[in-house]
Design a protein that fits this description.
CATH architecture: 4-Layer Sandwich
CATH class: Alpha Beta
CATH superfamily: Metallo-dependent phosphatases
Largest sheet: 7 strands, mixed
Shape: globular
Number of helices: 10
Helix content: 25-40%
Distance between the termini: 75 Å
Strand order of the largest sheet: 4-3-2-1-11-12-13
Oligomer: single chain
Bound molecules: fe (ii) ion
Strand content: 15-25%
Number of domains: 1
Length: 390
């Protein structure tokens, strides 16, 4: 028979667990309506987490280690629970940044640089940028950012929210990368490796103010061409831009007539053509909130899309460049809390916007689309030989 003390303890635990459940449901119910899709399930949630693999890497064989986190949509004071602005986004962003901060202690090889390809904030609120800048400043390595569509002035945002000019003025030097008044830059981050940051979220003529679509303005394309002419063949060059360059779904194509074309950069082919002409093998993007390592079907270009930090499957990446500068090993790291992953998956399911347009009622298709294949999370890329060792 159960001892009296054991019984009291079990009763206490039962009440406590019930309180947590009720609290959770109540909080969830504030902003989301039940859809009848069922409770969060763990099916499909066995995400690759490559921390163990990273612990087995020989640090001497890593020439340069890049962390990638995108689309945190950082949202202090935010009480909404939609897929992109989760109330617990600050916790998740904090977790990912702590993981990157501690990478040296955890694996024996520290991170050298963080790339953050946009949507730093919920809607470019000054206080969210201030918090993001404070966190980036606390990191022991520099960060390069590019603006996402949520980091620039849109017609539906309050006037006090930052535009691209304020972003460029604030995310400077080792906390963002900007070094002039222009919203794009080229930095040699280590000997022989250059990162070019482009702005696809705002144009000087203001034509992107009423859309979340992306385009690279003509002056920037001309600057990119000049920059590549100067450095191509001498350095390994990676591009970073918020909107994607390779379609990941038929609805991404400009002629699809579907809203999902706004994930894609309007003049992506102009950028891709320059990449091919000047042997730029890699572009890092965000915006689509999917995990992909996607080779272009015809051209020698690979796009790495990293899933939104704030949304399912909330992964960050580690990119290890080897001593030859020709091999790039890509790892993915996720969240350690299955219940949180399940909650984020549930948020994804409740937001019909994120369902693949051809499968609008299929939760399994949604989860599969967001995940991609195992090779979208961990893979080895061969880069062109640029003789980057000097
Ligand atoms: Fe985003
Ligand atoms: Fe975006």
């Amino acid at each position: 028979m159960m001892e009296r003390r054991e019984f009291l303890w079990s009763l206490l635990w039962g009440v406590a667990a019930g309180a947590v459940c009720v609290g959770g449901e109540e909080a969830w119910g504030q902003t989301t309506r039940p859809t009848g899709r069922g409770l969060p399930s763990t099916e499909g949630l066995a995400l690759a987490d490559d921390l163990q693999a990273l612990m087995q890497v020989d640090p001497k064989k890593v020439r340069y280690r890049i962390g990638v986190m995108t689309d945190p949509h950082f949202a202090l004071r935010d009480q909404s629970l939609d897929f992109k602005a989760l109330r617990f986004a600050p916790w998740i962003v904090g977790h990912h940044l702590r993981t990157l901060h501690q990478m040296g202690r955890l694996t024996g090889r520290k991170v050298d640089l963080l790339l953050l390809p946009g949507d730093m904030t919920r809607d470019s609120e000054p206080w969210n940028h201030a918090a993001m800048l404070r966190m980036l400043k606390a990191l022991p390595f520099p960060t390069l950012v590019v603006p996402g569509n949520h980091d620039v002035q849109k017609v539906w945002m309050p006037k006090e929210n930052w535009g691209v000019r304020e972003v460029v003025a604030a995310y400077r030097g080792r906390i963002g990368g900007y070094d002039s008044a222009l919203p794009y830059y080229a930095h040699e981050v280590t000997s022989g490796l250059m990162v070019i940051g482009l702005n696809s979220s705002d144009t000087p003529d203001g034509t992107l103010r009423d859309t979340w679509n992306g385009r690279v303005d003509d002056a920037q394309v001309a600057w990119l061409k000049q920059t590549l002419q100067r450095h191509a063949g001498k350095k390994q060059i990676f591009l970073m831009i918020h909107h994607t360059l390779i379609p990941h779904h038929p609805a991404n194509r400009e002629d699809s007539g579907h809203l999902w074309r706004n994930f894609h950069t309007d003049n992506a082919d102009a950028i891709l053509k320059l990449m091919v002409d000047y042997q730029v093998p890699l572009v890092l993007t965000g915006h689509h909130h999917i995990q992909r390592v996607q080779k272009h079907p015809a051209w020698p270009v690979t796009e790495i899309v990293t899933s939104g930090a704030c949304s399912y499957p909330s992964q960050i990446r580690i990119l290890d460049l080897d001593a030859s500068g020709q091999l790039l090993q890509i790892y993915s790291l996720g969240l350690p809390w299955p219940i949180l992953i399940a909650q984020i998956a549930q948020a994804a399911r409740q937001d019909t916007f994120w369902y693949p347009p051809d499968k609008p009622n299929d939760p399994k298709a949604l989860i599969a689309f967001l995940h991609g294949q195992p090779s979208d999370r961990r893979t080895l890329l061969k880069l062109p030989n640029m003789r980057i060792l000097r």
